Amino acid sequence: MSQENTKEEVSLKNDPRLRLFYLYRMLLENTDEENPMTTNQIVAQMQRQHEIKMHRTTVATDIDLLRSAGLDIIKYRGRSTRYYLAGREFSVAELKILIDAVQSSKLITAKQSANLIAKLASLASKGSAQKLKRNIHITGRAKSENKKAYYIVDAINEAINKELKISFQYFEYDARRKKKLRNEGEPYTISPYDLHWDGDFYYLIGYCDERESVRTFRVDRIFNAPEILNERIEPKPEDYEVDRFINEAFHMYVSEGSETVTLLCENSQMKYLVDKFGMKFTVKKADSEHFRANVKVFCSPTFYAWVFGFKGAIVIEGPEAVRAEFRSMLRHQLENG
Fold first, then answer.
1. Which one of 11, 52, 116, 313 is separated from 178 by 20 to 30 angstroms, measured CA to CA?
2. Which CATH architecture has domain 252-336?
């Protein structure tokens, strides 16, 4: 860069015509309800940072201009006139929730989480930055190693919106924790229908040409950003309903293939049934310490593992065929454990 260009940039930086922009940015970065700036502080900072001289009356005039442009700048008088920017896209409470979600997400890497959290924090004033320091402790939370997750999700969304097929390689881990491409390294060709967030992971739901059926794929196990093909997606099967498919694939209750199971539960376990099934199940008192609940579930290993985790506080009481299948799974585990 030439010396002449450098001088020109310095000159433009200190151009008084930029005063309104600098004033807005000053209020955005430094002020909130608990941290207003006085007129004298604004004048001093404008001089110190931008070498632009302002008069006290000029501050008031410029603030009025910014307010007329739609900015929510609050002015109040005490011993001195103070100003702060009130109208922000996100409140501190909203930013805390977003930061917690980013910090706990297993989709993105630890480095990507830190960068995204820093960007979220920049949406608040410097005075509120300390409030955004989170104290959420996430035990055993393994972060993704897939640095391309952002681009993978973006490509999938674009393909869904354009109703175009995508192609990608998909991997799993072998016994040595090394990535191993599935389908003998050949890419899958998918008609993407929906993205689903379940627990900690994003899943792609779509029709797989190679398997000739609707399948799910963990987004963080897609090897590279998918290639968007110049080929229209396969029409969704007539019986495809995303909510029903998600319930079948990810949860233990479905509309078809489900059955009513009676559970004998200790009274203290009601909160867990409500968490899992909502309020749509019948309850009757069994005795002073137990209740019976009739729940509609898909009797899969997911359901049996859920019951097993309560160590007898929740017991399958019927039907007998379901009890027998549960006992068979337990017996198999003991014999092969």
1. 116
2. 2-Layer Sandwich (3.30)
Burial status of residue 116 (CB atoms within 10 A of its CB: 0-12, 13-18, 19 or more): middle
Pairing of strands 314-318, 259-266: antiparallel
Query: Residue 96: which of 49, 136, 41, 138 has the closest Cα?
Result: 136
Query: What's the burial of 61, exposed, middle or buried (CB within 10 Å: 0-12/13-18/19+)?
Result: exposed
Per DSSP, helices labelled H in 36-121 are 39-50, 56-68, 92-104, 110-121
Strand intervals (E) in the chain? 37-38, 73-77, 81-85, 164-168, 171-173, 179-181, 188-198, 201-208, 213-218, 227-232, 259-266, 282-285, 290-297, 314-318
Q: What is the DSSP letter of 337?
A: -
Q: Which two tokens stand for residue 104?
A: 């706990």
Residue 90: CB atoms within 10 Å: 13
Name the CATH architecture for the domain at 3-85. Answer: Orthogonal Bundle (1.10)
Distance (Å, whole) CA 104 – CA 110: 10
| Each residue's pLDDT tens digit, 260-302 | 999 999 999 998 888 888 787 899 999 999 999 999 887 878 8
- Distance in angstroms between the alpha carbons of the first and the last residue of the chain: 70
What global pTM score does this model have? Answer: 0.57
Among the ranges given (4-13, 17-26, 130-139, 206-215), the one the predictor scored with the smallest mean pLDDT: 4-13
